[in-house]
Structures are given as C-alpha cells and as structure tokens.
C-alpha cells in the first residue's frame, strides 16, 4: 500500500478474471509465488458452470429423456408418458446447476483470501491495473495493482446483432434461459451455431414451438459441405429451420416478437413468438480493459497478438487465456491455456513453447455433431493433399438396433504418408468416436495403424471402421472391402 491515499498492491502476477482459465492460471502461478492478485469483477462460479456447458447439458438431458419416449412405439412398447412439467424441468436444471456452481465456489473459498480481489480491472499502463467496483457494487480493496506479469482471462459474452434488438425486453440470451421458472410457449432462435442448435433442439423436444434461423447455410460449426448437408437435412426434418431466409425483420407487437422473413422459395412469412433467443456468436471481453494503455500489439479485432503455444502476447510480460483470446473457445482449451499462462507467467522471463492438444469439438445436438483433428475447410485452406472415407449411419448395425441410425461420418487421411488427419461427423453418440479419433491423430497414427486396433461387435465404432477402410482404399493403401463383409459382423 502507498501512503498517499492512492492505495496500490504490488504483486508478481495479476490475473484478470476468475473463470476456468483464470482459476487454472492461479493454481499454477500459486505453486511458484505467493504474491498474486486474482481479480474478479463479476460473479464467481465460471461461465461453464453458471450459464454454459453444465446447465445447457442439463436442459438437453431432459429433452433427450422425452424424445426417447417417442421411439417407444417403434420398439413395440406402448406409452402415454411424455407430458412436460416445465416448472419441474427448469427446477432440476437450476438445482443441478447450483450444485455444480457450488463446487466452483468451494474451490474459490479454498484460495488464499489475501489473493482474491473483487473488482473490475483495466490497464492504466503496461504494468498497472486500475480497479473499479465489481458488478455487485462492492468497492475494490485497493485502487491499483502493480504487477510484474499480467494474465488476461476475461472470457467472452454473447454478440448481439443490432437488428435483433428490436425484440426489446423479449430478446434473451443463453444466460437467461437457465434462470427460467417455466418453459415458454414459443421461441425464435437466431443462430444455428453450437448454442442455437443445442438449446433450440432441446426446447423443441420439450414442447416449446421453436423456429431456428441461421445465416449463409451454416450449421453447428461444420465445415465439410457433405456433412453439413446431412446435418441440415436431419435437423430440418425435426424442426422448422431457415438457414438461408432473406429479408429477415424483427419487430414487437405487444408482448409478442414477430419475425418477418422470405423463405428460399420466395414466399414471405411472419411468425409470432414469446421470445427471441440470440445465439449469434460470442465476443471476447477485452474492450473494457483499456488495452490501448497496455502497450500490446493488437490485431484488427482489437485483440492482443499472441502465441497459442505460450499464451504470451508478443514479447511482453502479458499472457492471455480462455475465451478472451477468441482462439479455441471451449472449456478444456480454456483450462489448458490458463494452466499454460499461469506456468509461463511464473517462469517469466523463461518462456517455453508447448505442444497443444489435437483439436476436438462436440455439439450436443441429436445426432451429435463433432470434429477431431484438422477440419475439412482447414485442409483445403492449407493445400493438403488428402483423401476422404465416409460411412452413413443409416444402415450401421448397432445404430439400427438402437433406432438411432441417422448421420454421416467423414474421415480425412494424408496422401502419401497415410496419416490420419481429421474428421467431421453427425451421428449417434459421436462424442465417443470423436475422442477415439482425436487420440489416434494426436498419437500420429496412420489410417492402417488405427485399423489394427480392436473393434468390438456390435458397436457404433464399427461404423468408424467402415469409413477408415474406405479411406485406406481412397489413399491407394488397401483393397476395397467387400460389400457387407461378413468378417466385420452383420451390419457393421
Ligand atoms: C451456453 C454455453 C454452453 C457451452 N457449452 C460448452 C460445452 O458443452 N463444452 C465446452 O467445451 N464449452 C462449452 N461452452 C464454452 C465454455 O463455457 C467456455 O469456453 C469457457 O467457460 C470459457 O472460460 P473462461 O475462463 O475463458 O471464461 P469465464 O468462465 O467466462 O471467466 C471469465 C471471468 O472474467 C471476469 N471478467 C471479465 N472482465 C473482467 C475485468 N475487466 N475485470 C475483472 N474480471 C473480469 C468475468 O466476470 C468472468 O468471471 C459453452 C458456452 C456457453 C455460453
Ligand atoms: N458443445 C460445446 O462445446 C459448446 C456449446 C455451446 C457453446 N460453445 C462455444 O461457444 C461458442 C459460441 O457459440 P455460438 O453458438 O454463440 O456461436 P457460433 O459461432 O457457433 O454460432 C453462431 C451462429 O450464428 C449465426 N449468425 C450470426 N448472426 C446471425 C444473424 N443475424 N441471424 C442468424 N444467424 C446469425 C452464424 O452464422 C453462426 O452460425 C461456440 O463457438 C463454442 O466454442 C461450445
């Protein structure tokens, strides 16, 4: 503290944001120094537990439970169950969400209280952070923090296109959904990306009237046009989907939100909803950081230029981790980057490059959308010579047995080396197949190597084997498998 009325705390490392990345950074930095400030301006508990991964999966779990009932008659089982008690559904989502948040709060309570500052932080100069009251109004314990190293772990927030603001107080974000006391009657979901697809389908399956509006034909962050076409077909077969609607206009009519649009056939439509959910992407929380005072080089988006293998911004003493860097905005990547940033900041000026994990992403729609390794668009952009193998799940044995036989998986292998490069897919329980593939790619296995691994019968993984065999043939490294090969087991 300084004695001139300008209170200042001097630390080795200041971490801005105590989400997943910030907490992970704190744990690493704490191993090497006791002079730390972990500064949090919003609520503790992390985006993932409060309004992200966990509550969304709770809502999806309820929706899937009801959806399975619809398949019962096809198995010869009569059921008149399936009435949805919206209040009970949302109570379980909130209760379980609170339980997950409680675990995070317990972890924060275990941190040294002298390290934790409730305040909003922004740069005053490259080594000084100016503190102002936190979101809950609590006054910061000091006015400034002066730090040898600074970690930016400020997360992201929903990006809202101006045109959607016409919905006024009926415009909602994913954050709002998890505090609902009951399910609404009708919701227009804007954005057919990851959040729009997960929440839109879940609400539809819980009996809410949903219309999913996308843009430019994009769906679920899929880059492979063949997989995207299959995903569009499957989702459109279940709920109203407009990925290419033109002249979209939003207006309020009393308590209702009205969406006017022209469908690809040229027909003009208007539809009324209780709410408009904006799921139109997320933007990193950096513009309130006064980065212009940080001395950092910024890119065209105003984000610090950084190295993902060190998390270091340029050759500075500043590190950036999690959604704030807009690089890989996923939970396990935020945790990894926080770990890396904490370790590097503590070691600074000795900074070492680390190999990052193989990319892996899962959209918890049904069927699940997933990717592993390099995506189709990236392979094309990088000019890689690659071949493709694919399998449809329509006739895949185990998928048919379970009546989940929908979707398509495409795997990519490198010409010449036969290395497995990546995959994109929509299909049953594909979260597991995507993991297997990401692990194989990280282990630098060839397609032939993966085919040497055991495949149990009858499993959905046998579908992966079919795609890999086709890929091996397309690479010129193996004979075409016989149609319905019997050593694979029936329906493999
Ligand atoms: C609906 C939804 C579902 C999701 N589902 C999944 C999923 O299934 N799987 C998956 O991998 N990922 C999922 N994600 C993404 C995942 O939640 C994020 O990638 C991850 O939580 C980001 O963590 P973070 O530490 O970067 O940010 P956060 O957890 O948001 O932490 C940032 C913290 O910084 C604080 N802060 C910001 N600015 C300041 C400042 N100036 N001063 C002080 N404090 C500040 C904030 O208050 C916040 O506490 C989902 C996201 C959403 C929204
Ligand atoms: N299962 C998961 O891992 C999971 C779940 C949820 C969120 N997340 C993370 O959160 C991030 C943000 O999710 P998101 O769904 O908001 O972003 P997103 O980038 O996945 O999708 C946003 C979509 O909105 C569309 N869009 C933009 N403006 C529009 C408009 N005016 N009208 C209609 N469509 C419009 C875009 O074309 C895009 O398809 C994801 O990229 C992901 O990394 C992950």
Automatic annotation (TrEMBL):
Active site: 457 (proton acceptor)
Residue ranges constituting the FAD/NAD(P)-binding domain according to the UniProt record: 12-335
GO molecular function terms listed in the Swiss-Prot or TrEMBL record: dihydrolipoyl dehydrogenase (NADH) activity; flavin adenine dinucleotide binding; NAD(P)H dehydrogenase (quinone) activity
Cofactor note: Binds 1 FAD per subunit.
Disulfide bonds: 48-53
Binding site for FAD: 57, 154-156, 323
Transmembrane segments: none
Designated name of the protein: Dihydrolipoamide dehydrogenase
Organism: Rhodanobacter spathiphylli B39
